[in-house]
Amino acid sequence: MRNRVTLADVAKIAGVNPGTVSRSLNPQTENQVNKETVRKIRKIAKELGYTPNTVARGLRTRKSLTIGVVIPDLTNPIFPPLVRGVDSYLLPRGYSALIVNSDGNVDTELVLINSLMERQVDGLIIATGHGGDEMLKDFHTRGVYAVMVNRESPGVPYPTVTGDDGAGISAAIEHLAALGHTEYIHLAGPSDSSTSKIRAHTFTIECKRLGLNGKIIKTTAYSIEAGQTAMDKFLDHKPSPFTAIVAGNDLLALGAYHSLRTHGLNCPDDVSVIGFNNMPFTNDFQPPMTTVNVPHFDMGVEAARLLLSQFEDEESAPVKVTLPVSLIIRESTALKK
Amino acid sequence: MRNRVTLADVAKIAGVNPGTVSRSLNPQTENQVNKETVRKIRKIAKELGYTPNTVARGLRTRKSLTIGVVIPDLTNPIFPPLVRGVDSYLLPRGYSALIVNSDGNVDTELVLINSLMERQVDGLIIATGHGGDEMLKDFHTRGVYAVMVNRESPGVPYPTVTGDDGAGISAAIEHLAALGHTEYIHLAGPSDSSTSKIRAHTFTIECKRLGLNGKIIKTTAYSIEAGQTAMDKFLDHKPSPFTAIVAGNDLLALGAYHSLRTHGLNCPDDVSVIGFNNMPFTNDFQPPMTTVNVPHFDMGVEAARLLLSQFEDEESAPVKVTLPVSLIIRESTALKK
DNA sequence: TTGGATTATGCAATCGATTGCAGAATAGTC
DNA sequence: GACTATTCTGCAATCGATTGCATAATCCAA
Prior knowledge:
The structure is a homodimer of 337-residue chains. With 337 residues, chain A is of the alpha/beta class. Helices cover 43% and strands 17% of the residues of chain A.
């Protein structure tokens, strides 16, 4: 990282002022400079291997061309596609994404966001589902640009991108109902997450609407272990019979797989299970998992798009974008026996 | 991102020079300033909500406290743990990681690395397995700090962190041999990747050593599809019988699962399969996959550590760190019938 | 009390690029 | 040929923090 060529170096060789070099190299301003001069400077810059110093430029222009992306945990397989979606929109536009993992902790999230702001990110994409609404309102009044993904926060005046959680749960229940199931369990994600709330809420509504028996089991996290633990605890209590599980996400569904297995129950013969997200590998589980596909890549793209559009239209309304989801029927659901 | 408080703002309120504020706030230099003054300035800075501008600081100090991490594809499940390992070492030390995906394309990789350097990253962690050795030598002579992860490049004078590929393949073959298998297939990853070469090479050596029949099938990528396609093509050709597959990684092994299934072969009854990496969810496949565990998180940590250590000892030898791997025996391997 | 050391702070340059302003050079018009 | 308009380039300030150097202030010892 030593001996880098600077604008001044190019200027000296070309025998012109650094300002002229700057203008020549910037497509926006090159028309202010004589065509011949531009050609010469471009040539010299290339020969010298000049590359702009983004840091210095950012200081002057007050733009870092960097976006902070806040997610709970990169090892949750729904986030890599989302991040790549973000990237796919940002990169061609000269932006980079700085990714941080909050591990579901509101305090670390605040620390991380502050460090992102010290790094002068131009905006934030926030994909952590939990709390921190006050913090976000505060950011908004301070003029911080942001977009929320995969979370709803009614009070927060930022654009939001989500999958259609309600429609997903409805489709899941309708599918199970068509198979003849009447006794349902909803393995709900942690209740501080907005997606958990919506999914659980829709579950209740739909059960009522279709005249089904629905029971909600709460978990402590969106993880295999949390799903298994909650389900174990439930099954150990000799519950009233049920034949269908609608899980808050695929990891919880997978936890349910494990629990059912250790309790001698077969999926789908004894119990049908539906996941949520259609994360990678759900098709390779045993049995292949029926789940709700959520377009995480597209959500990332959309979030990035909404964020960058804020930079242009100063006063943009806090749009809500809901992307369509679809039920992927595989082999974890079957006719009620 | 507006109206940020600057050093000068704090200085004005405190009635001192910006330099004094800078020195007061930096633990390294605060002893140059009167204790009482430090206390006062610290207090005012806190009241005003001053946060340093990392960009400006980076311009002056020529350190961005940012590390570029180059991986093939974040959606390959081995990389999130690696990235988190990197992060876990960097974050407490004030560094951030800027992650880019090359998608296995050497040209995009070059473009991305250049953009990382324009952003003045202090160093690179490179986890892409393929080619580009000339580029890397060039970087080295230009004084770019870097560490290679998950790839061996004998000619490249950078520290390297890898799993013990050879030992992993040996353990896999010994396990299969102990189960009575004598006819082997190695589903090898793309041959421009260094890990592919080592794994394939060890496979050949070990087969010879143990008097086994080994055949290598090449694939075009480390993906489920590539594994399935290669295996399909092979099986369609009515090959000489075999009972064991050692796959180049878990994704290829999963591709083999699919192919075997569509060809009416059962794993493990007809064919035993071993993967490589022990990526997330391998335990939930059908059958649960026997595979070689590779400590990706630790590899990330180690890579970050080696990189930062270069910043201190100016002339560090290109260390090679090999982390131990272990065979995880599950249900995709069985006694030869 | 004086001189030398020490401490504390200010001054100003610097990092590398951008950009408003001004002035020089050239072109264009009547 | 004089005058305005246009084009081109240089100058210098600026972004925000850091840091070598200088100087003022204080201290201590003889």
